[in-house]
């Protein structure tokens, strides 16, 4: 069983990060390690990675009926990012 349980109500998962910013390094490392696991849990789920200069790292989950929940990942390490994503998916 995957450590990321993807609810059926989840329609899209968006990660925002800076291409060069130090604050985004933990998120880049997290995505490098866990992207395949997330996609394996729900292959048809759009997992978008948006890179832009100077953007603070965050994740946004879009659920049914357009409801979006955003979590700021700035200052978090890999384990804390994982915990934040798991709690976001339980929303």
Automatic annotation (TrEMBL):
Subcellular location: Mitochondrion inner membrane
Keyword Transferase: no
Every Ribosomal protein/NADH dehydrogenase domain range: 19-91
Membrane topology: Peripheral membrane protein
Alphabetical list of InterPro entries matching this protein: NADH_Ub_cplx-1_asu_su-2, Ribosomal_mL43/mS25/NADH_DH, Thioredoxin-like_sf
Keywords (A to Z) from UniProt: Electron transport, Membrane, Mitochondrion, Mitochondrion inner membrane, Respiratory chain, Transport
GO cellular component: mitochondrial inner membrane
Main location: mitochondrion
SMART domains given in the database record: L51_S25_CI-B8 (SM00916)
The protein's role, per its UniProt record: Accessory subunit of the mitochondrial membrane respiratory chain NADH dehydrogenase (Complex I), that is believed not to be involved in catalysis. Complex I functions in the transfer of electrons from NADH to the respiratory chain. The immediate electron acceptor for the enzyme is believed to be ubiquinone.
Family recorded in the similarity comment: Belongs to the complex I NDUFA2 subunit family.
Listed PANTHER family: NADH DEHYDROGENASE [UBIQUINONE] 1 ALPHA SUBCOMPLEX SUBUNIT 2 (PTHR12878:SF0), NADH-UBIQUINONE OXIDOREDUCTASE B8 SUBUNIT (PTHR12878)
The name this protein goes by in its record: Ribosomal protein/NADH dehydrogenase domain-containing protein
């Amino acid at each position: 069983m995957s450590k990321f349980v993807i609810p059926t109500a989840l329609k899209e998962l968006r990660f925002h990060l800076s291409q060069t910013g130090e604050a985004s390094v933990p998120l880049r490392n997290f995505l490098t390690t866990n992207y395949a696991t997330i996609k394996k849990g729900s292959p048809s789920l759009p997992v978008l990675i948006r890179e832009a200069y100077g953007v603070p790292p965050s994740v946004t989950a879009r659920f049914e009926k357009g409801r979006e929940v955003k979590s700021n990942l700035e200052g978090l390490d890999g384990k804390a990012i994982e915990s934040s994503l798991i709690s976001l998916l339980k929303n």
